[in-house]
What we know:
Elements (H helix, E strand, L loop, with lengths): L3 E5 L5 H9 L1 H7 L5 H12 L6 E7 L2 E10 L4 H8 L9 E7 L9 H16 L5 E7 L3 H9 L3 E7 L10 E8 L6
Antiparallel strand pairs: 1-2, 2-3, 3-4, 5-7, 6-7
Helix pairs in contact: 1-3, 5-6
Amino acid sequence: MPVITWRRIGEGDFPLLGRWLAQPHVARWWNHDTSPEGVDRDFGPAARGQEPSEDLLVMLDGEPIGLVQRCRLTDYPEYLAELAAEVDVPDGAVTLDYLIGDPRLTGRGLGARMIRAVVAATWTDHLDATAVIVPVHAANRASWRVLEKAGLRRVAEASLEPDNPVDDRAHYIYRADRPTPAR
């Protein structure tokens, strides 16, 4: 079985991110400026260690296939407040955002494998992480199905600010809790 790995993105990855963000299946939900300046503005601070978010370039057998953004919700107080108004957010909660860049790689189970792997690593990478909480727009069926296939469970419906202004506020909230040690 092909191996999924990741590393933090660097500025050298920005042209690839720009191409991925311009793909229709990504652009519909991410709604980012794909110009070099826009990609640098949105991803540069994390790549340079100036922002606490972890932007992870995900690879399949060493070839880039996607991006996972992972961050502690407490590092983004406004976002945490909006989310906590809709659903229980335990101390130490982490959130993710994700994409598969090449449309030819979608629908093959890679997204679920990618998310499952990053969630599992979260428990060792962030020893204080209590839960992974992921809001996803209700209309983004492919995205919330990937979360379900990765083992997250839907815990709420919420009204949240959408990433794309053409969307309404309807979101589903998915969650995975830190596994408890076997007794």
